[in-house]
Amino acid sequence: MKSDVEELMPRLLPVECGSGTVGDLDLSGPPRNPQEYLRQVQLEASLCPEVVVAQIDPKKLRKKQTVNASVAGCHAAPVGFSPSLRWQQQQVSNFSEVRQSITRHRKHWTSQTLDDNVLMPKVTDEEGWKRFCLGEKVYLGTSSSHTDAEPEPALDYSKVIYSTVLMVLEILIGWFEEREFVPQLGRWLYALLACLEKPLLPEAHSSIRQLARRCAQLRSTLDSQEDDKLPALNLLICLVKNP
Question: Is residue 75 part of a domain?
Answer without folding.
Answer: no
